[in-house]
Here is the input.
Amino acid sequence: MTLIAILDYLGVATSAARASLTVATRGSDIVAVLLLATVAGIGGGTVRDLLIGAPVFWFKDEGYLAACLIPAALVWLSGIGRKNIRLIDVADAVGIGAYAVAGCLKAQQRSAGDRPRRIAPAGCGQPGR
Here is the structure.
């Protein structure tokens, strides 16, 4: 597994966990938690891939959907979102950092030019939020 793939999985999982923590604190049901965690988890990477002209990462590897659904289900089932709101900030920071590095590396690897390489780190973590 490459560094980009590891950072992608980390970004997806932590963004999904962050979204599920946020939704769980509002008393949402499991369907809402799983749906919003998936949108948040794959949203930033999808926009990144579209910006740099790469194939959308989760179309060819369903493991990314599992990386969204597993943390979201664990957060909802454990009730941790109702107990520790500070975890939302930690998961958010880890997800944005992982996406920023993965986005820059992926844009550089695809020789996308200067503009996508400059905006990929700033934009990749944000569209899913």
Observations:
- The mean pLDDT is 77.
